[in-house]
Amino acid sequence: MMHIVVCMKVTPKSEQVKLDPNTKTIIREGVENEINPADKNALEAALQLKDKHGCKVTVIGMGPPMWEPYMKLAVTMGADDAILISDRAFAGADTLATSRTLAAAIKKLGEYDLILCGEESSDAGTGHVPPSIAEFLNIPQITFVNNIEIIEGKIRAKRVLEGGYEVLECAPPVLLSVEYGCNTPRFPDFRRKRWVDKEFKLKIWSIGELQLSNEEVGLKGSRSIVEELREMKLGERARQKISGTEDEIVEQILNIIRPYIKK
Ligand SMILES: Cc1cc2nc3c(=O)[nH]c(=O)nc-3n(C[C@H](O)[C@H](O)[C@H](O)COP(=O)(O)OP(=O)(O)OC[C@H]3O[C@@H](n4cnc5c(N)ncnc54)[C@H](O)[C@@H]3O)c2cc1C
Questions:
Q1: Which domain holds residue 27?
Q2: Is the pLDDT reported for residue 167 higher than 70?
């Protein structure tokens, strides 16, 4: 049976993403969160392969304990297992430290055939993490995938390009990053919810469970720093209120557009 690992991040709802100008990080307190939208598509893709081929699906996320309900939600949707990698030592990780930690956790899982990630997150949104995990694990990667098939034990992926697509085939293990919106994520299964609430135990792994030192994770294991943070202000649009009778309004509009009309 194929083992699919889905990397899942929890992000603030996009309209609530705000930055702290002092710490230069995303404000994660007091905002509504959700499963990163592209990761929901990655999970749905994994569950569709499970429905068709009987694969095992494990969801893995590196984040604070408050992610627990979202990890469980993934199990309610149909994942078989979920692991939250959570430790104070992981705080302040950049994409390098995040990928190294996720790769170490995936290694600890043992056998895996397919790793699915979202193409990028809706908050930091670098798209660094999927290719970096593949590099740490020394396995091939196919990015921006919008369709996945398993054919005679091989993974066939449709990769979106500007103005077209390419179809690539690869023997497992392979990592794929999945395009946002490529499928419609299913609703949670309410019969599974009862089981998840009563019996399912989320595994929480700390740094002690991974083959990593304190120097390789979190802020200490990060190589990039945010030097400066600037808020981009959109320019004011030139607006003009037109009033008067219907004929006066028409005349005013004509006066505005007349210079642009070629004879
Ligand atoms: C310079 C810099 C400094 C930063 N400093 C901090 C900081 O101090 N504190 C802080 O909280 N954040 C910090 N961040 C943000 C942090 O690096 C990102 O949250 C994290 O590394 C993931 O990067 P991303 O969101 O760009 O992922 P992307 O590469 O855009 O994500 C692609 C996919 O990778 C997977 N993925 C990404 N992150 C996770 C995860 N945590 N668990 C499971 N799967 C995942 C998901 O499938 C996701 O769809 C910093 C980022 C940068 C660039």
A1: 3-216
A2: yes
